[in-house]
UniProtKB/TrEMBL annotation:
<feature type="domain" description="Nucleotidyl transferase">
    <location>
        <begin position="3"/>
        <end position="180"/>
    </location>
</feature>
<protein>
    <recommendedName>
        <fullName>Nucleotidyl transferase domain-containing protein</fullName>
    </recommendedName>
</protein>
<keyword id="KW-0808">Transferase</keyword>
<dbReference type="InterPro" id="IPR029044">
    <property type="entry name" value="Nucleotide-diphossugar_trans"/>
</dbReference>
<dbReference type="InterPro" id="IPR050065">
    <property type="entry name" value="GlmU-like"/>
</dbReference>
<keyword id="KW-0548">Nucleotidyltransferase</keyword>
<dbReference type="GO" id="GO:0016779">
    <property type="term" value="F:nucleotidyltransferase activity"/>
</dbReference>
<dbReference type="Pfam" id="PF00483">
    <property type="entry name" value="NTP_transferase"/>
</dbReference>
<dbReference type="InterPro" id="IPR005835">
    <property type="entry name" value="NTP_transferase_dom"/>
</dbReference>
Amino acid sequence: MQAVILAAGRGTRMNHLTNETPKPMFKVAGKNLIEHKLDAMPPEIDEVIIVVGYLGDKIKDYFGSQHKGRKISYVRQGDLKGTGSALWLVQSLLKDRFIVMMGDDIYREEDIKRCLDNSWSILVQKSDDAKIGAKVIVGSRGEIRDILEKTPVKVGDFNNAGMYVLGKEIFDYPLVQIQNGEYGLPQTMLKAAKDFEIKIVETSNWYQITSPEDVERVDKILMAQASV
């Protein structure tokens, strides 16, 4: 099975920290953010495609063509036009059902496995505080009704964790354009959700890195967990 890691972004909210280092290469608890994902992947994922962009050569130089026996290849996203546009660049390389992960998030192995138990799925986390996030609205039958990005997420709301298991049929749907001329993968998935059941998989172990403070906070959490 193949995994796609979207790691092309500039990481502007990290300020000067990304001047020389791409955000997915930031180290947390002794490993960079891409290593965390690679090491959490179950054995059935035998190939990884990393979409690179900003300072992408640093990612390629670090990992090369394999990591612990797992094949790695790269696709460059020149114009950063969103997650949907990034995924569409690898369409010709995908063989069958695949999993998509964000380059700057940390996921747990058990959650990856649970997502893979479904033909199509999306990982969500129930929010424990009020924030701005990507609210996933779920219907009475457990179906996805909407995904609202950059919107208030209240305590108890589902927040999109940005990990998806998809079939190649996703490419039969037109990309949905969002703000700033970008194309959103979640918004395009909503089109497919009318024809394919996308299972909601809930986690409490998703760590999103969006600021320098997040790096320090998550580092402390993971180091504390490792010492138990």
